[in-house]
Each structure stands twice: as structure tokens, then as C-alpha cells.
Amino acid sequence: MRSFSKYLYIILVVLLATISQQAQATHIRAGEITARRISATSLTYEIRLTAYFDMQNGEGAANAQNTVQFYIGSEGPIIAPRVNIVNIGNNTTQNTYIINHTFPAAGKFRISFEEDNRNNNVLNIGPPPTQNLNFYVSTTLEINANFGMNQTPVMLNAPIDLAAVGQRYIHNPGAFDADGDSLAYRLFVPQRGTSNGGGINLQYEDPNMVVVPAGSPSFTETGASPATFSMDPITGDMVWDAPMVEGYYNVAFIVEEWRDGVLIGQIVRDMQIIVEDANNDRPALDPLAPICVEAGTRINQLISATDKNGDRLTLSSSGGVYDASLVSPELASFLVPNQGTQGTISGNFVWQTSCAHIRQEPYDVLFKVEDGPAAGAPNPALFRRLTDYKSLNIQVYGPKPKNLTGVDLADPAGLAYQLTWDAYQCQTVGAKIVIYRKEGCTTLPEDVCVSGIPAGYGYTEIGRVGIGQTTFLDNNNGAGLRTGVSYSYRLVAVFPRPGANPSEPGSLIGGGESIASDEFCLNLPMVMPVITNVTVDVTDKAAGEITVRWTRPTASSGLPAQYQLYRAEGQNGTNYSLIATINTNLEAGALDTLFVDKGLNTTDNAYRYRLDYYFTENGLLTKLDASEAASSVWLQQGSAIPTNIRLNWSAIVPWSNNNQVHRVYREDKANPGTFNRIAEVSVTGAQSFTYIDDGTDRYTADGSVDVAISTNDQYCYKVETVGSYNNSQIKPDKLYNFSQIICVTASDTTKPCAPVLSIDLLDCSNLSPDTYCNTTSFANNLSWEYPQQVDGKDCDQNIAAYKIYYARYETDSPSLLTTVTTPPAPLATTYTHNGLKSYAGCYYVTALNGFGTESAPSNIVCKDNCPAFVLPNVFTPNGDGKNDVFQPMECPAFVQSLEFRVFNRWGAQVFDTKDVNVNWNGTTNAGKELSAGQYYYEAKVFFESSKVGGTATTIKGWVQLLR
After folding, report:
1. From which residue to which does the signal peptide run (predicted)?
2. Which of 102, 382, 404, 796 places its Cα 20 to 30 Å from the Cα of 527?
3. Which of the following CATH numbers is that of domain 398-525: 2.40.170.20, 1.25.40.10, 3.40.50.360, 2.60.40.10?
């Protein structure tokens, strides 16, 4: 009997051990959570967990996982049933769990899932044993009325491929966003779940660093050292080149969803990589170049792969372009006529694109090649299949609008034009035709991969009409077009987001655009003269001279007309006075389009001119219009450099001096009054131009005259600008204008000084705990003073702008926040930094003079928050819906993180949480209801601060639990 009991005991121990092992058997290899809105009238979303179960190490537990638990915001656990299970190979099943959930309001929500246990003996996470670590993933979903029927990206490629020692491993999630939002990728640390759906990072080591023995060198597939583990933020390729040690590894990454430059959600995928010594070489897919097409193009792309071992190959593909729930038909297809061929394999990707496929973001189509044992290979059951991936990037643009033209409406002034074009090919509901205009005719690059109007070509949107419209009247919003100007027009079609409802807010933003139409360039009749020259002939304080020239309007000769020329002081002057009245019969060759303005102070002043034109109507002189004003060229010395002289010049004129070559002249000291051209300066993109003279004569066609720049000598300069109206009706095409002459030394210029900065600090003593409740945006008000002198030295008072720099933390290097320019003078010396999540941050400001020289930084000012975290001393968790939860009074302000613990009267800890809202319901962490009585708490609160890591405050107190 005793012997029988002994055997029974042994059997019982083995049985219990087996049951215990099965209870802790790991079964989840990978997973992620996705969501999509399914109701247009309520905030109801389908929440989906896609989990990949390990059938080798935990088949029993995996099969028994009929439900999972979600935490959604502050709600949970919420039970979700399994709706599908599919065996996808490599000892893995794909399991899908779905619930429909209605959110109470718009906002940002964390959706999470946690389940025990991970595989044991994972090499790069801890603490060990890793079978005691739970599996946890989360998704951040932002609900906003402007997002419409938004859904998160979905991951179409299962993370089940094996890695091989010494060989490059690649995984791409095949993420696709049906709304056309842009995606970005970054590595993340695997986490484990905590109470209430939270997650904290595991002890994690880059899998690339796990080598035996520790610290040994690692190598890539090609033999370079060290090995690498990285993720491409744009393509999503996660590459490990190359594993060195067999075993299990866990990694995680985040797929971010961006719309119009704003992050609107993110998904965490946690996945396991199994590394084996495969005794096999991975196959390789041929590189795939990106494709850009106009909608309506049929894509037929050959996809090829090879295997140097001659193994059998299988080609497959995944992507949203195959799924009718993600893109509109027609869908793409991928045909591989000879699956399983040895050594090489090819397939054809075919997609007939259509107007429904136009979107801003490209489509990524993922291709995978997997090898298998060749025919007659020994021990095929021991063969370890390896893979390679390549992504094909496809951009689908709208077709080019066609046959843009225009007709003059015969307006008496010729200042309006009617544009027409062919009916657009893609009549997408909600799409628009955008009309662009610029002065001058311009050739754009012919590139099917460039949509819209490329930046830097000077076009401005002047209107947009419905996609079905084919006409547009351009009268410059009723102000009339400028005379004497060539106007270039182009059209671009813009589209709503894929599947968007035009009645939804935000649905028409960022859905893609077309390639720009061909240009239609319009030369309006020159019925109004335009100024062509304002050039300084003589530099003098009292006897200066400027020559002004203008064009003759298109009218029959013999018609009595009159020019009235006005002058104002300064390049932006407005105090015009009439300086000349010139009567004309508009006869060709007559000297009636030129005036020499004398008796000026051209040494100290620039001048601005305007021409009024009068024509004969009903026998009377009648004013037609005034020309655009044009200033003289103004030359100044820039920043002081001991061995150089910096020159800056500007001209505010109606023609363009950009994209031209200006000329710089320096007086020849050996021949006073003679100026030698020393440089030709190519200028682009501004009306203020610069040249630094180091004494070298860089223009030798008129002789070479080099000098040594010295602070003891004076040097005289003038510049000649070159410009054009870019209008064939205005002659001459090139317009040449001289500046005044300046004589300077290398030490003439004063420098800008550092401003003195202050910030509106908070008075925390006068703020109540509820001050910041329901406040989501904060602002800091900056003000500064600019000094006249510093240390007895004058400060340059010619300040054109202030630059404001900001750092979130006092130890960070501040970066440029904004540049403050508010002409005309005086310049603004205040700035409000809006849209902050808290007040915490540091600032300094610098001053810039008219030549772009920046001062030293001002004093640094930092600001901190007024933290508020007040806890009550009683709560009643009796389920009556009143005061059931212990949480901060009003709202916690600027709480970065929290460590909260509760103790009973004997000092034993009964509850802890890191939830910043505490949300203690009177139970232990295990869910056991605590008895009524007095409990003690300790809260270590980290407040948002200008210091990295925040400012820690420990709060101790007691609370009475009543039932």
C-alpha cells in the first residue's frame, strides 16, 4: 500500500507539472491593434487585434484563446471574441479578435491588449525567465471631427519569416492606409502590460548586440563589421544584417499615421524573430525602381528573383492594391506562371489605374520570395526556408488638364481675361481645378514624378472651381491685371482623400493632385506705360542726378497725351510730389519717355518714382492709371570684416532683378574717378543682394586691378543691377541701373547688440488647483529691449528683425522658433508663443541688422509650471455612482508621471498604480475589495518642468474609505 502511494504521488506530481506548464505555455509570437470607424452618425469603431500564435511551443493554449481583453482609454477590461483563425505556415496561426466600441467623445485614446506569457529563453529581453513576461501592444487613436471616417493603417504582411545566422534578415509590415495618410516607421522597445491597460518598457537589448561571447565582433552578410539592426522610417524595411546567434528575439516598432503634418495616431507591432543556423542561402529579389503614372495608365511590371543554390522559389505579393475594402476597383493582380521553379522565377504585376486611385501618398506593394528544397534534395524536412522582400513604390497622379487658353474680354483697359480648358478627364466628386498665375512666362520641368506646381517657380493660386467647370475669369479680384506684364497661367486638379465624403469636414484636404497643365502665356496690350529705369548718374549731397525712363503705350501717334512724374524720398517712400509734366503726341523716336531728375541728395537718400498717364477722351485729358513705383538702387556696407568689405544692395522695382548677373565696380586708386568692374554676381530669390570684396578683381575683361583691403584705407564702390520684365512687349529686355557711389573702410560698420529678454512668470501662490482644468493650450509672452550702447560702444540701430530661439528643456540646445519682422518701423519687441502643452521652456532672442548680421544671444529666460495635485481625504466605493473612485480633486495640472502607493494601518502595501488620475476603486491590485477604514498613501509626482525628467514632489497623506 505504501509502495502504491509512492507511485501515485509521482504520477500526481508529473500531472500537476504538466498542467502548470500548459497553463503558462506561451502562444503569442506577434500582434498589433487596428481600428476603423464604421458609423457616420456616432463615434463607433471596429477594434481589431491581429495576433500570431506559436503552434510549436503552445498549441494547446493558443487553441484555447477564444477571447481576449481590451483596455480602451479608461474603460476595460472589455472582452473581444475570436472571429477567425488561419494557419499561415511556419508553425503559426493568425487569430483575429473584433469588437465594436462607441467612444463617449472625440479625443485621443490608448487601446491596449495584454496576455500571459511570452516564450521562455528570449535572448534580448528581461528580466528572466522571459516566460513570466506578458505580451503587450497598444494603439493610439485620435478621434477628431475633421478626420471624417478615418481608419488606422493595416499591416498586410505577417511577421512569421525565419532569420538565418550570418544572413541579412528583412521584415516589412506591408502597412497600408486607406485614407491616404502618410506613414512613418520607428523602432520601439517591447513592453509588458500593467494594471488598467498601461505599458512599461521591458529590459531590452538591441538584438544585434547579442553575441557569444559577449563583446565579440559581429558582421554583416558581406563581412563588414559591426552588424546592423535598423528600420527605414519611410519604407518600413526593418533590416537585421546579420544575426550571429541562434535563438528567440523580440523586437517592436511603431507605425505612425500623419495627416497634413500632424501625427494623428500610431500602432505598435511587437514580434518575435526566430534565428536558426539554416545551412542555406537566402534568395534575392531584383531591385525595383519607383513608378510614377498618370491615372488611367496600365502598369505591367516584371518581378524577378534568383537563388544561387538553385532552390525552388515561390513568389508572392501583398498590399492594399489587391483589397477591395482598401482601394477602389480595378484591383491589381500578380501572376506567377511557374511557381516552384528552381534557381530563377518571375511574375507579372498588373494594375489598371483609374481616377479613383489618385492620392497624395504613394502605394507600396510588397513582394516576397521564399525558397524551398530543390527536387531530390536530401532531408527536405530539415530545410529552413528563407525569404527576401522588396517594395514597389507607385505614385498615381491626376492627369494633366489640357488645352488651357484664354481670350481678351475687350475691357477698355485690357485688364481682364477669360480662361478656358477642356473638360477634365477625372470627374471625381469633391475635386477642384486650381488656377495659378505668375508674371512672366516660365518653363516647368517635364517629369511625370512631379505633380502640381514645383516650389520656387513663382506661381500663386488665384482661384479654384469645381472639377466640372471649364472657364475662369481673371480680373485680379476686380482690381484689374497690371498693364505691360506677361502673365503665365497653369491648372492643377486637386482631389479628396480616397473614399472621402465631400460633406465631411477635412475630407477634401490632401487627397492628391494632378500634373500641372501646359502653360498659357498672355501678353496684355501695353495701354499703360511702365517705368524701366531709375539709375543714379551723379552721387552728391546737393547736385545728385537720377535718370528715369519709361515705355511708350500702344496708341496711335498724334493722340495728345500727358505723363506726370512723381517722386518720393526713400525706397518705400509715400510722400510723393509732382516733379515733371510732359506732354506728348506719342510719336516714335520722340524724347518724351525720359527725365533727368537733378538737385538730389543721392549720397544719403534713395528715391522712389511713380508715373501717372493721361490720354484723350472726348477731347479732354483723362487719367488712365498710375504705374507701379520703382526705386533707385541703394548700396550699403555690410558687416565689418577686418580684411574684407561686404556690400549689400537692394532695389524695390516692378521688374525682376532676380536670376540675373549684377555688376560690382570699385574705384581704381591709381585713376581717381575711374571705376573698374571687379565682379559679376549671380543673384536669385531676393531683392537684397550681397558681395564680399577681399580685394581680388574677379572680372578681368577690363583689366585686373587687385588691392589689399586694409582698415586704414578707403574704398569706393557702385553696383549695376540687371533686370527684366520677362515680357516681349517691353523693350529693352535687359534693364540696367546704377546705384549711388559709397566710400567705406573695412571697419566702418557697427554691429547689432544682444537684446535684453524677459518672460511673464507665473504667480503660483495666487492660482487655485482648478485654474488649468479644461485648458489644453498655453502661451508664453516674451518681451525684450534693444540697447543703444553696450560697454560704451554704439549698437547698430538698423535692426531689421529679431530671431527667437526655444528649447523645451534648459539643457537642450535652443532651436529657431520664429523670426519677428513687422515693417514699417518701429519693429515689434514682443512675441506670444502659442499652442504649448505646458508653460515649461527656455528662450533667448537675437537681433539682425539690415545686412543679415546676427547679434550674440540675449540672456536666457526659463519658465516653469505651477503644479497642482490635490487629493481628497475620503471616498465611498459602494457602487452608487457617487464618489466611487479615489482621484485628484478638480484636475491634475502638468503631471508628467506618477508613482502612487496605498498602505493599510499596519504599513502593508495594498495598492499601487502609475495612472496620473490614480482611479483607485477601493480594491487591491488583484481586485480584492478592501474593508472600510483609514488608509495611508504616498504619491511621487513628476511635474512637467524646464528640467529634463521633470520636477519630483512627494505627497503623503491619508484617506478614509467608507462603504
Report:
1. 1-25
2. 404
3. 2.60.40.10
Q: Which residue has the cell 502659442?
A: 834
Residue 416's pLDDT band, with cuts at 50, 70 and 90, is confident
Closest C-alpha to 781, from 760, 802, 750: 760
Domains 531-631 and 874-961 share a fold: yes
Residue 15 has a pLDDT of: 34
Cis ω on the peptide bond leading into residue 226 (within 30° of 0)?
A: yes
CA dist., res. 167 & res. 279, Å (int): 11
The model carries a pTM of 0.59
Residue 207 confidence (pLDDT) = 94
- At residue 18, the pLDDT reads 37
- For residue 525, say if its preceding peptide bond is cis, omega within 30 degrees of 0: no
Helix (H, G, I), strand (E, B) or coil at 862: strand
Element (H, E) at 880: none
What value does the CA radius of gyration of the chain take, rounded to a whole number of Å?
37
Give CA–CA dist 659/338, Å, rounded.
58
Cell of 638: 555690410
Nearest to residue 875, comparing CAs of 862, 888, 885, 889? Answer: 885
| Fold (topology level) of 531-631 | Immunoglobulin-like (2.60.40)
Of 389, 307, 388, nearest in space to 340 by CA: 307
CB of 817 closer than 8 Å to CB of 834:
no
For residue 214, what pLDDT is reported? Answer: 77
Q: What is the chain's percent helix, strand, coil content, to nearest 5?
A: 5, 45, 50
Sign of CA dihedral 683, 685, 686, 687: positive
Q: Does domain 874-961 have CATH number 3.40.50?
A: no
The rounded percent of the chain whose pLDDT value lies above 70 is 92
**Residue range 634-744 in CATH 1.10.132.30:** no
- Taking the alpha carbons at both ends of the chain, their separation in whole angstroms is 55
User: Residue 658: what residue type?
Assistant: N
Between 79-88, 323-332, 542-551, 850-859, the lowest mean confidence (pLDDT) is in: 850-859
In CATH terms, is domain 284-397 a member of 2.170.150.70? no
756-863: CATH topology is Immunoglobulin-like (2.60.40)
The domain spans of the chain are 27-218+239-276, 284-397, 398-525, 531-631, 634-744, 756-863, 874-961
- On whether the CB atoms of residues 537 and 596 are closer than 8 A, the answer is yes
Q: Which of 572, 551, 802, 531 lies closest to 687, judged by CA?
A: 572
Q: How far is CA 947 from the centre of its chain?
A: 27
